[in-house]
Amino acid sequence: MRIVPLKNGYINIGLQTWYGVRLEAPFEKARQLNCRRVEVFFDKHGQHGFDPMDLKQDARNYIRGSEMVVSVHAPIVDSSSPRAEALLGGALSFGHDVGADIVTFHTPGMVDEQSYVMLAGLCRSLAPNMRVALENTVECGSPAELDQAVTLLSVNLGAQAGVTFDVGHAAVASVDPASFLLGIRSPLFHLHLHDNAGREDRHLSPGQGEIDFQRVLSILGERNFEGAGILEYWRPHEFNRDIDYLQLMGQLAST
Fold it and tell me: d(Cα 78, Cα 70) in Å, to the nearest integer?
């Protein structure tokens, strides 16, 4: 199993489905890499990718039989859209069907209480056993804003929601992703890993931009993180090198 060691804890490395490749590809690549986790991202782009309703029983059976730990990235949708409840509910039903352990939602652009009431109701009715996390987007300007959203969702959920910390998004939204991470008070459930130079959300391989991953991993170790870190891009020829880089940064952060 490919993990990144932390001073206290570890990160299970996983891959994500990608709209430009067939569903099975990241599962096959994860097996080759000895990774044990895949995240299904409902990222439909025109004729590519898929919505929850596109994954019929055969696809769900394949995922259940893959022996991977599965997480779900819900569709990125405006909560006021007429399709929002169907798409978000479909992602939750899918996650429940395949035994996913966590679902990640992008936070709305502003803290809109009705959006979180709707989202919490869907989570309670369709996937009561899945952990729920909100991801910091490039529009999320501060840890306090993210914590406010998590608190609002938790209150309506009747259970503790958490954070999917997107390292690359934090680099674009703030001066320093490590400082952003230090400011988060909500529980850290999950990670999205990619790099950039702080100006565009380019989803580069770790080490190919300007993010100080050693510092980020040091903070995660101080917080006893033991969740998954999803490589949020599809460059199969780079995955071994990228995992080796993260493992090295984790070792350096632990000394």
Answer: 25
Indicate if the pLDDT at residue 68 is higher than 80. Answer: yes
Cα angle 243, 247, 253 (rounded to 5 degrees) comes to: 145
CA distance 93 to 104: 14
Q: What is the pLDDT of residue 86?
A: 95
Residue 86 φ then ψ, to 5°? -65, -45
Question: How far is Cα 16 from Cα 128, in angstroms, rounded to an integer?
Answer: 23
pTM for this one?
Answer: 0.97
Alpha helices in the chain (DSSP H): 24-33, 57-64, 84-98, 113-126, 143-157, 167-173, 177-183, 213-222, 239-254
What DSSP string runs through 98-123? HT-SEEEEEPPSS--HHHHHHHHHHH
Looking at domain 3-254, which of 3.20.20.150, 3.10.180.10, 1.10.1670.10, 1.10.240.10 is its CATH number? 3.20.20.150
Say what the alpha-carbon torsion angle 199, 203, 206, 212 is, to the nearest 10 degrees. Answer: 30
